[in-house]
Design goal:
The protein has nine helices and nine strands. With about 160 residues, it is α/β, with parallel strands linked by helices. It has a three-stranded parallel β-sheet. Strands 2-5 form a two-stranded parallel ribbon. The protein has a two-stranded antiparallel sheet with strand order 3-4. The radius of gyration is 16 Å and the shape is globular. The relative contact order is 0.19.
Length: about 160
Amino acid sequence: MIGNTGSGKTTVSRALAQKLGVAHVELDALNWKPGWVESGRDEFRARVEAALAQDGWVCDGNDRGRLGSYTLERADLVVWLDLPLRIVFARVLRRTARRVRTREQVWGTNVETWRNFFFARNPLWLWVLQMHFRWRRRLPDILVKYPHVRLRSERDVERFLAEA
């Protein structure tokens, strides 16, 4: 399951894994350490390899920079959640507001802050905008080699899950 931040990768992949009776593998959970420290390349890859060694799984995440096509090559089907920017951005804003308000911990002991959302070195709001257009430019050429489906609306996602 790939797509922009806020596209629903974790929610949809978790639901699909439950429906299929297989493991759910979240790349962000394998990557992030306390204090928003990323795992080293070798450590991260080893965690991903171990997680994907299972007989069945649904994996969500986009870390092509460190994993290359590793997850794509092992998937029976790549699901690209390509929802409109207005939906994705609104979801990220609502999710961040909830996490900031409740101090919800994500991926270990990490918590989101408005400071990180707006003013970090690579702020989340800017990341969402940049990646939306980058994915749309690059993914069609990348995915041509793999069995894939591109879901462009919430209705597409609902239909996909219903038919899975």
